Amino acid sequence: MSHSPSSSPQKSIALRSPPTSSPSPSFNPPTPAWVCGEWFITHSSLPMWRTSRNVRITYSPLPNEKLDDLVQYQPLSSEKVKTVHGVDTPTGPGAYHWRGKGWLMIASSKWEILGWGELGNREMEPSKQWMVTFFESTLFTPKGVDIYARSPEGLGDDIVREIKKEMERVGLGEGKGGIGEIFEVKRD
């Protein structure tokens, strides 16, 4: 599967509706190169992040547009950094099948990018790269969404409000579409 090299970050916030069993003609997914690097989960509806802080994901390129997926986080009551490691295999435009590595090899999940972009004026302020992901339910977790930022400081209240408005528009507002409350993930 190839992504158009002309994929450029959205300058406004727009999301597609999940799941993406049929491709959305208006959705232009990010290239794997744009996705790669460190991301911070700043907001989520997934219960597992309520008891965690400093949640970050590092994507690294693998052959065939696969991604190495390393999640690092700390429990609220501990300084210990825990990790979850897996591989993401593309299944469609901006959609992936995650399979755990090591003892997590039996675990898998499906996730997709609902929207992505870069806001801000580089000359006036640092740009704000963002991504919204949707996870289908598994045996261990309900379906849910995460809001990612490149910066550990997050995106700012105005941007998060706009993302939540757009989530509402595509049927993923809090308590809708099977999505629970969207909360801010704690970070130091």
What does this structure look like?
Helices cover 9% and strands 38% of the residues. It contains 2 helices and 9 strands, in the order αββββββββαβ. It has helices at residues 32-35, 157-169; strands at 37-44, 52-61, 67-75, 82-92, 95-100, 108-119, 128-135, 144-149, 183-184. An 8-stranded antiparallel barrel has the order 1-2-3-4-5-6-7-8. The radius of gyration is 16 Å and the shape is globular. The N and C termini lie far apart (38 Å).
Radius of gyration, in angstroms, nearest whole number: 16 Å
Shape: globular
Q: How many DSSP E strands? A: 9
Contiguous uncertain segments of 5+ residues: 1-6
Oligomer state equals single chain
The helix content is under 10%
Strand order of the largest sheet: 1-2-3-4-5-6-7-8
Short description:
By secondary structure, this protein is mainly β. The protein is built from 2 helices and 9 strands, in the order H-E-E-E-E-E-E-E-E-H-E. An 8-stranded antiparallel barrel has the order 1-2-3-4-5-6-7-8.
Task: Detail the topology: elements first, then pairings.
Elements (H helix, E strand, L loop, with lengths): L31 H4 L1 E8 L7 E10 L5 E9 L6 E11 L2 E6 L7 E12 L8 E8 L8 E6 L7 H13 L13 E2 L4
Antiparallel strand pairs: 1-2, 1-8, 1-9, 2-3, 3-4, 4-5, 5-6, 6-7, 7-8
